[in-house]
Amino acid sequence: MKISGFTIIRNGEKLGYPYLESILSVLPLCDEFIIVVGNSDDETRTKILSLNSPKIKIIDTIWDEKLRAGGQILAQQTNIALDAITGDWGFYIQGDEVLHEKYIPAIKEAMQQYLHQQTVEGLLFDYRHFYGSYDYVGASMKWYRKEIRVVRNDKKIRSYKDAQGFRKEGKKLKVKEIQAEIYHYGWCRPPKKQQLKQIDFNKLYHDDHWVNEHIVHADEYDYQSFDELQKFTESHPQTMLERILKSNYSFEYDPSKVQINSKDKLRQMVEKLTGHRLWEYKNYNII
Asked: In whole angstroms, how far apart are CA 221 and each of 94, 97, 189, 195, 254?
């Protein structure tokens, strides 16, 4: 069994992505790792080369600014990486996602278990979404709970919409759930870099006029737009520990400022009673 990792990144340094930690977290699982590096104006490519891993293969690209609407450039770039993998399975990891090392044995076991079961087109992971700091995770209805991060190397499988998930010939993939989580750190970086990231990210979906009209112009991102959060008391992935130790900004969570609308209160009540989340978007079919 051969395992390929794949990801895309552009301006990872400038925008504060933990992309190196992301790559290193999956690298032990992989026989090769395909990284599509977009035209950057920082040291992203140099930093990747400094990892000095023979498993890593870089594909250099120039992002097509005409593909901004709906984040389609992200899927287009992801498909370049997906087309380049040569393993039986591909492990997709985004630049702000990190795999905890404790899950590697279970993931490898699942890949081996379903290797010859062609009906299994992917593996479904749970998610932890960190917000504000490395000490809190999102607990509201806004956060997606699961997503596909391992896909079979079938060239009919394509990255879907803005690269959140995958589909095969337009249809949802048939997947198996596994007992593993992806740690998503997209909402805990220094406020200055979070603000830069907000502007850059929205430019992948909208034109400059929309961004100027809808994105707050500020030096720093305001984390005080409180979401419902829970204290995180477990361990972070080993690859993240140095970044967390170097973190030098403060975040205070005030639960009294959290406001939950009536629709989400209903959804929370139903989920607590039944385990089912009303109106949840699911880009997969569990088999």
From this structure: 22, 20, 10, 5, 17
